[in-house]
Amino acid sequence: MVLRQKLGSLHLLGGQLRDRDIFTCDGHIPELKRQLKNLNPSLNELQIGDIANQKTTELEKTTPHLVTWQDWRLPCADGDCCKFIGYGSRPFYNSLETRMTGEEFFKNSFYYNLKDDSDIDYLWQDALPEKEVKDYKDSNEMATLYYVFKSLHSDKIITIWDCN
């Protein structure tokens, strides 16, 4: 298992997945294109598509897989893919925000496509872990997980949640 992980990392580091019909995660191309168009209104659709494809290929071919229960696209913000920064918990959200409460920050961080379909009050009150979820091992003990991402270009935080 360790050898397989090391070999997989070498493939990622060397960019060798670019030449194979495999990828490590799924980028959110439609949202990325929308954001890029808003940020660069002078670019045409072909140029936007090229930039979005380049960014998505980079994500999918060089980023380690994030283990999740459901399949979903990794979020983007500010015209780029986001980076995973940890599993959400009350202490985690409280540590990220200084201008508002952790609860307000949590509620404002939901990815755009989850805001209307999530009972965010319930998730904060009844499902968000009271203790920090430090790693993948800790995450296996949760019935609901919160994946927290950060923009590569700003302090914007995005939350996606998942149930087993």
Strand content: 5-15%
Largest sheet, spatial ordering of strands: 3-4-5
Distance between the termini: 24 Å
The mean pLDDT is 83
Counting helices, strands and paired strands, the structural category is alpha+beta
Helix content: 40-55%
Shape: globular
Q: Number of DSSP strands?
A: 5
Q: Give the SSE order as H and E letters.
A: HHHEEEHHHHEE
Computed CA radius of gyration, to the nearest angstrom: 17 Å
Q: How many structural domains in the coordinates? A: 2
Overall description:
The chain is an alpha+beta fold and 164 residues long. The chain has 2 domains: 1-65, no CATH class; 66-164, no CATH class. It has 7 helices and 5 strands.
Helices and strands in order, then pairings?
Blueprint: H1 2-13, H2 29-39, H3 45-62, E1 76-77, E2 80-81, E3 83-87, H4 90-96, H5 102-108, H6 120-127, H7 136-139, E4 144-150, E5 157-163
Antiparallel strand pairs: 1-2, 3-4, 4-5
Helix pairs in contact: 2-3, 4-5
